Amino acid sequence: MPLVPEIDYGTPASKSEAMVTLTIDGQTISVPAGTSLLRAAKEMGTSIPKLCATDSQEAFGSCRMCLVEIDGRAGTPASCTTPVGAGMVVHTQTERLKRIRRGVMELYISDHPLDCLTCSANGDCELQDTAGEVGLREVRYGYAGENHLDLAKDESNPYFTYEASKCIVCSRCVRACDEVQGTFALTISGRGFGSRVSPGQDESFMSSECVSCGACVQACPTATLNEKSVIEIGAPEHSVVTTCAYCGVGCTFKAEMRGEEIVRMVPYKDGKANHGHSCVKGRFAFGYATHKERILKPMIRAKTTDPWQEVSWEEAIAHTASEFRRIQTQYGRNSVGGITSSRCTNEETYLVQKLIRTGFRNNNVDTCARVCHSPTGFGLKTTFGTSAGTQDFDSVEHTDVMMVIGANPTDAHPVFASRMKQRLRKGAKLIVIDPRKTDLVRVAHIEADYHLPLKPGTNVAMLTSIAHVIVTEGLVDRAYVEERCEADAFAAWAEFVSRPENSPEAMEAHTGVPAADVRGAARLYATGGAGSIYYGLGVTEHSQGSTTVMAIANLAMATGNVGKVGVGVNPLRGQNNVQGACDMGSFPHEYPGYRHVSDDATRELFEREWGLDLDPEPGLRIPNMLDSAVDGEFKGIYIQGEDILQSDPNTKHVSAGLEAMECVVVQDLFLNETAVHAHVFLPGSTFLEKDGTFTNAERRIQMVRKAMSPKNGYADWEVTQLLANALGCEWSYTHPSQVMDEIARLTPSFASVSFEMLEREGSVQWPCNANAPQGSPTMHIGGFVRGKGHFVVTEYVPTDEKTGPRFPLLLTTGRILSQYNVGAQTRRTENSRWHEEDVLEIHPSDAENRGIRDRDWVRLQSRAGETTLRANITERVAPGVVYTTFHHPTTQANVITTEYSDWATNCPEYKVTAVQISVSNGPSEWQESYDAFAKQSRRIGAMEPAE
Amino acid sequence: MSEEHEHRHDTAARLVYMANQIATYFRSQPGGAPSLGTADHIKSFWTPTMLRDIYKHLDGTGGQGLSPVALEAVRILKARPTHKKLQGVLESVGEHSRMEHGDDAG
Questions:
Q1: What is the interface size between A and B, counted as CB pairs within 8 Å?
Q2: Which residue, among A325, A543, A617, would best test binding to B if mutated, counting the most B CBs under 10 Å from its CB?
Q3: Under CATH, which number does the domain A809-937 receive?
Q4: C-alpha distance from A644 to closest chain B C-alpha (Å)
Q5: CA-to-CA distance for A456 and A832, rounded, in angstroms?
Q6: Global ipTM
Q7: The CATH number fitting domain A374-571, selected from 3.40.228.10, 3.40.50.10490, 3.40.640.10, 3.90.1150.10
Q8: Sheet containing A153-154: which strands, arranged edge to edge?
Q9: CB atoms A618 and B44 under 8 Å
Q10: What is the predicted pLDDT for the residue at B82?
């Protein structure tokens, strides 16, 4: 198994449909108009030497290496900057060209260290390769003259080095940062001989604006920017193409290996979601896979105050099955349940819900989407007929107006954010609806046309007032609505939103946003061309989360912005496989494919396949499981790959629920916070250790491929199968492909999906069946899945979580770029260098009123609890609003959040909590007691003497 | 929920709150019969145990705390028959203890 090769065509592909025919080195070739000569030659099979050109960037024409001669034209133009012309006759190799290239290369090498044998890029260096291609045999100038060989090495970044002495100033890194990533952190400082790559203003990489996406490292043709892991380990010898296990963008990577040791993760150019780009998490933060704190042996204990005892897999599985059976016998069939993981594969998630429905014989299965995008499922199914976004990511290239609501893509979906920024720099308009000044509001070369900084909890008021403008100002796409949508529902909705109380002027009292801005944004979205809406958890995690999703769908339908490229409603999913976990039947009321358990035909289909009767009634959602546990009725839970103690709201209630159970089984990589309350720990496997599929935010099903053996002995799907069989199921899967085949048999939208198909096609977007054999990049073309689009009246109902004298501020929560969710993975990597603790963002006026200075410890109190963290005084938040992340268990931000939740789905209202802050001098009582309990609970008997 | 009670765990209060939230939404929808919409939504997403508990609350207190729409929805639900399949499932797994679905038949 060799390294997976990738061809660099030198310049990006032309998207022209017109073809041009020319002759290169005597061969006739036809290519799209606008193609560079460099690319045309490469497509023909001829590699013209190059250094500054790479096909992820526009042509630059600086290295003078890719020169060609063209009949009838004077000189030796650079082939990267010269487009093909009809009838052109091109020569890529002549005596003149050979002489020039060799001379140029000689100059490059005269100021480059000749340490190739000990260089970390030996064998993977384009400079080395090009020197060979041009036949460089000597450097006549010597090395005694002025040079850059003694320049200092910048090792400040934890993942890569910048060795300026090896830089040829090709600007590929600078252009990667500009064109691909869109951060503009790098520049070329100085002039002429003094020209050098400079992060920021001659700063170190770590202190500059660099976001460590790795695009510059990827682009560098020498060892100037090189991964530290390559420097330490050496060059990889084979690679495995797989899918990132961080956010819902679903980037494709090559896991480059040496034996079973991972050397580096390199973004894969053929990845349909990322097109060769990456972020600091997927690119570099894989160290958790081999972290010393990973638990590799099963453990059990009778009480959570006991130390853990390591046992064999056989004993752990037998004990777990025995406990679940005991509990069901003693407390009833519905006294146990489980939670599937949005970090695990589709196949693993499918098996967990199957275990619960057929092994536990109930529907008590839920998933982390409960606390993130469950309103998306409800809202989009109600309005459009499908519980998923409408577009692929590439659609953004064709959008004219982006409306970003309650999402912070530069932090939470960074690779897609780079695509958004590319489009915005090319002229698309931008509306940001968010209480905070997120990066998209104003960042290098981008400024939102409208930022509507609404008060947390007023999304429905805002979106309904936008609808008011669209309807009352005659901006509705009447033809679209009449053809595509239910007439009665539209009429009722239009009448509702037109009421004076829904005008921007009336809603200003709720949202705090000037009506004129709302009107301007509404007009822009409705009249600016192809309008797309991208949203995140700032939409869903509210008491009106589902209503907000439906309000978004209303806007898209009213303006004709569904069913074609460049438009749509696009939920930005949080976790790598949260879309897949939902698709796979992880909800207590739905089988795979979003079909209700009470639907007789669907249930009979599953009963035939699984060979037993199934429960026709919905099961418990996660919060209901915890409530029921506190009530003494729910006694056992199987949790695969979730950390509900840290991620779910009102930590004290979650803790009480878990502690009330008699058998909590946690299957995870680490002893996470939930495991503090567990009785069985089953070691999990990483995405590098198994085969399967993930489904990203654009419904794209992609392969996850095993790059190394599971360090714990089993892939997660195998552990679930062991448990299922111990419970009496008779499963005999030998490979996840068999699970996907079963999914395809049972799920119409997956009917044509198989591992064989995914291997052949690379990836596919569901629905993928007889009607759409190649999948569905854009949904609802020509008509909605449900038939006619359904408008929904969206009355604004203020949340019951209200500010008052005791709790005058509103807390809202979110993520940061370097950390991922509960941080179980990223906290065990060098990513913590960027974010070693959660901090509280406070507006200067709120801080001053309370005598709080930057970096002070502050006590954050709500009706649910209190915690302590450091202050970050910033104008990113508006007065009256504070913000923090939830990545660190020492902070436990969810001690603060409450149990208020979405009316339709019980998705928690994380984004609105009334709080008070005050100066503090140390951790809260809860933090201290939890820390002591967690330490005690994590003791492993084999490592410590019994008490 | 009043501030004193809002974070104290109380199953009945929690279910009443949920039902009222759902009823508030359906009350805003055109076409009338918000209690039917509320009842259908509850039936689609609540477990038999949750239904049992809200019926118990209805029987015990007359539905204290339920909004008029939610109260009507719970009454509608209580009058509906149990899914015909459910009894068979329960018998097939031999479960008779804590048969929470009994109340469901109304």
A1: 104
A2: A617
A3: 2.40.40.20
A4: 18
A5: 29
A6: 0.91
A7: 3.40.228.10
A8: A153-154, A160-163, A225-227
A9: yes
A10: 66
